[in-house]
Design goal:
It is a single chain. This protein has 523 residues and is α+β, with helices and mostly antiparallel strands. It contains nine helices and 30 strands. The strands form seven sheets. Strands 1, 22, 23, 24, 25 and 27 form a six-stranded antiparallel sheet that branches. The protein is globular.
Length: 523
């Protein structure tokens, strides 16, 4: 078995120059570590919320899926009829304890759209039940918003875009509205108090895919998508006017004068703007217990570039501090670099970022059915310090955990179950595991650290060890209830893996050489 592990590690180096198509998301911040917390094939997710230690994630076409113990469950906990075309669909989720709120573009099963709806469900740890309709909203194929968030006081907020409507909530004078009898421009371009219901919290919002609550101050923050330029990050005080459709990005005096001043809502410039649109989406704060380095940080994802941005809050937590002099005006102009704000990339269209009950960052994308977790390097160091001594049978597979992104990954769980339920049930199995652990833990921490530092190496190693894990799965279908069976199956698997990792390459090389000799004789 030792020779197999050695050969696997040796063979993995041959794959370090994989083509870019196999590249995975990466972090540029060496103090943070990226994991694949849960993964499944297929299209991606739109939003998520934590219910205890579990996660409820939304699929755009109307399914709510449960992620439990790092495993994406096969059966959805809820299916609702929605219109998934364009920016419609199952769009937002938050919760207050066992009460779960969903924002969706409701339709019948024939495809007729009713509009955007906000429902309140009860979570019974198995399914979402007892729906209550809280809010009926206008809808369109675009600018439906949909993000939900819960305040520190358990106030539930929702954001909806303009849905193509232009009225007083989009800073348009009533006499300029056509046709004059139109009234469905209400409940658009606003941040709503959903439960308990109340007056508009903010207005003048073109469209938004992200709301966040500062865990220290309770302040509400939002991302906002611009038109052809100027995406925004806004601090949202009560009675906030974001300025659309008169203003996107920081305003000049003439633009502010054009605002009609409805309902005593006050305009404020954004805390940050991108002149070139990036389509900002998910937004959240984080409180890592292992380090205070990110205590004053706001994390934002985008859809156009697949980037994660880290913004440093000022002392009052009502704006940002920038080390880059060109960003002191709070605007990233077309010719200005924002590389120092980008801490990760390659995620595709990020749709949501949330802080989990463990204090770590979790994010999802529209591109993959994958939930990523970001944690500080200090947390990984603490985990590595809990590696068992060589005379114990406990502990995890560090190399496989780093390769597949989480100790809860199905492949890692399979290795652990084989160890606990098969090998450790006999004396020879115990003897083998003790000897193997002494060898394995002599190098695995360094290999796992190398995987975190070099994503291409991680992907190469993942591909390399997958056949071995698949071969070990054979043991799930046999009874290892005697010493003879353990030895018999163990030796057979060793020979099988030697054949895969040595025999097949040797045969290929010999075949190539023979073909070369034949070619030489012919020529």
């Amino acid at each position: 078995m030792k020779i197999i592990v050695f050969l696997i590690l040796l063979a993995s180096f041959a794959f370090l120059n994989f083509p870019p198509i196999l590249a995975e998301p990466i972090l540029f911040d060496e103090n943070l570590v990226l994991e694949e917390f849960a993964k499944e094939g297929g299209w991606g997710y739109t939003a998520m919320t934590f219910v205890g230690e579990d996660i409820l994630v939304l699929e755009k076409d109307g399914f709510v899926t449960l992620v439990k113990d790092g495993i994406i469950q096969d059966e959805p906990v809820l299916e609702v009829p929605v219109n998934p075309i364009g920016e419609n669909g199952l769009l937002g989720i938050t919760n207050v304890g066992s009460s779960v709120y969903l924002y969706l573009t409701e339709a019948d099963y024939k495809g007729e759209t009713f509009g955007n709806r906000i429902y309140k469900y009860e979570w019974n740890e198995d399914s979402l039940i007892n729906p209550i309709l809280l809010k009926e909203l206008p809808s369109n194929d675009y600018h439906n918003g949909g993000a939900l968030v819960t305040g520190l006081d358990n106030q539930v907020y929702a954001v909806i875009g303009d849905t193509g409507k232009y009225g007083p909530l989009q800073n348009k004078l009533l006499e300029n509205i056509f046709p004059p009898e139109t009234t469905d421009y209400m409940d658009t371009s606003v941040i709503l108090r959903v439960d308990p219901e109340g007056s508009y919290y903010g207005m003048g919002i073109r469209n938004s895919f992200g709301l966040a609550i500062d865990p220290i101050t309770g302040n509400l923050w939002a991302t906002e998508n611009g038109d052809d330029d100027f995406d925004e990050i806004n601090l949202i005080p009560e009675k906030f006017n974001s300025g659309w459709n008169k203003i996107m990005g920081p305003a000049i005096e003439s633009e502010e004068l054009r605002l009609p001043g409805y309902l005593d809502y006050e305009y404020n410039d954004p805390e940050f703007s991108w002149q070139k649109v990036v389509a900002p989406t998910g937004i959240t704060f984080v409180q890592f217990s292992e380090t205070n380095n990110y205590q004053n940080s706001l994390f934002v994802g985008d859809c156009n570039n697949g980037n994660i941005y880290n913004f440093k809050l000022n002392e009052n937590r009502d704006g940002f501090e920038f080390s880059n002099p060109s960003l002191q005006d709070k605007v990233a102009n077309l010719d200005e670099s924002i590389d120092d704000l980008v801490i990760g990339t390659g995620f595709g269209c990020i749709t949501d970022i949330e802080s989990g009950p463990d204090g770590y960052l979790y994010l999802i994308t529209h591109s993959k059915r994958t939930i990523y977790r970001i944690l500080p390097i200090e947390a990984v160091t603490i985990q590595d310090q809990t590696i068992p001594n060589s005379n114990t049978n406990g502990g995890g597979c560090l190399i496989a955990t780093a390769a597949f992104g989480s100790e809860l990954a199905p492949q890692v769980q399979e290795l652990r179950e084989l160890r606990e339920n098969k090998f450790l049930q006999t004396k020879s199995g115990n003897f083998f595991m003790n000897a193997f652990n002494e060898f394995y833990y002599s190098f695995s921490p360094e290999i796992s650290d190398y995987q975190r530092e070099y994503p291409m190496f991680r992907e190469a190693l993942k591909i390399t060890i997958t056949p071995m894990i698949s071969s070990l799965s054979i043991l799930n279908y046999v009874d290892l209830d005697s010493e003879a069976k353990v030895l018999g199956y163990g030796i057979s698997l060793i020979l099988l893996n030697v054949g895969m990792y040595i025999g097949v390459p040797v045969v290929v090389v010999i075949g190539i050489k023979k073909q070369g000799l034949i070619f030489k004789k012919i020529t």
